[in-house]
Amino acid sequence: MRIGMILDSNFPPDPRVENEAIELIKHGHSVYLFCITYGNEKSEEIINGIQVKRYNSNKLEYKLSALAYTVSFYRFFMQPKIVDFIQRNNIEALHIHDIRIAKSVFKANKKFNLPVVLDLHDNMPEVMKLYPHLQKFPGKYIISPKKWKQKEEEFINKADKVISVSPEFIESLENRIPSASSKFVLVPNTIRKSFFEDAVFDKSILDKYKDHFVVLYVGDTHLRRGLQTAISAIPLLKDKIKNIKLVIVGKNTTDPILKKQVADLKIEEFVDFEGWQNVSLFPSYIKASTVCISPLHRNKQHDVAYANKIFQYMSFAKPLLVSDAIAQKKIVEENNCGLVHLEKDEVDFAEKILTFFKDENLRMQLGENGEKFVKEKFSWEQTSKKLIELYDNITV
């Protein structure tokens, strides 16, 4: 089948889009990817077998995308591009990545009546509530998460199939829209075996941390990810674990708040901000770590979605310390691969770190359990089977 994936951002990078496309190609499909460019990238190229088709955009269109369900300008810009993409590439099925561009796709598809798969990477209406620009004027008054939630429901009803990333997310959607329950397909964000099988380790990173008790975080560092909790725990731990080091690999525009917190607590020697690093270096940081963390704040998005980092951590047999956000708490407890702390509670976080510090055998056993789970049951090669089954059975 000639599958047209629709992504309203740059490509690369987008690991989920790439993983899904590559898997479909491996099973005989042709994948054409509609995406956006703001610069001098090639208008067309093939990346890992994906036939990437880039359409020019600009800052105005980017800003209007946030208003996609406030005013119709964004759809007017995008719809003709999607029509052109479908016609030029003889697309036979459409695969929409998230809901921001969904209205444009459904409008464009009226001319073609192709089957549509809606792929919900996130609980977008809930994520939007956490954006800083929606907390203040003018975003607070012109962008409505409630309207986005209504649109999400409309698009779910229109789509032929709806992919989601966790059982908890699907359960919440089924409760909201029981009439669509037969449409939902679970395709979690997991890691390819190549992440751990083909890893190359950077000796400089391993040497840098070889004498430390490393508490590691990798990924987006937005405040909702909970790193303020980890930072607040360091003063409670530094006298008990003399060689403790909180290592943060990632970045976000809110990083100055985290760095000020570290400075105010006078714990600079115990916290390393490594900034964003190439994903190829993640295995080195993980291998150098003692405990890996995901201290997410609880909200309607985090309660139903896994952070991909926890599977990266597990694949190298590292014990996890995660907050009690429902989805990650459930997967950690069911597979006995880590400990759970109360969200935003630095005292509980510190107590769990001390538990790990005092018991090396516990660290090893929990780490081994996580490694076994990822390698035997929860790698991309296992969890992507539902995606292939979906396209094997979709009606053209």
Q: What do you see in this structure?
A:
The protein is α/β, with parallel strands linked by helices and 396 residues long. The chain has 19 helices and 14 strands. The longest helix has 17 residues. The model has no long low-confidence stretch (mean pLDDT 90).
Q: Treating each run of at least 4 consecutive H or I residues as one helix, how many helices?
A: 19
> What form results from the Cα inertia axes?
elongated
Question: Which percent band covers the strand fraction?
Answer: 15-25%
| Radius of gyration from CA coordinates | 22 Å
Task: List segments where confidence is low: pLDDT < 50 over at least 5 consecutive residues.
Answer: none
How would you classify the helix and strand content by structural class? Answer: alpha/beta
**What is the typical, i.e. mean, pLDDT?**
90
Give the strand line-up of the largest sheet.
Answer: 3-4-2-1-5-6-7-8
What is the rounded distance between the termini? Answer: 9 Å
Q: Tell me roughly what share of residues is in helical segments.
A: 40-55%
- Count the E strands: 14
Give the biggest beta sheet.
Answer: 8 strands, mixed
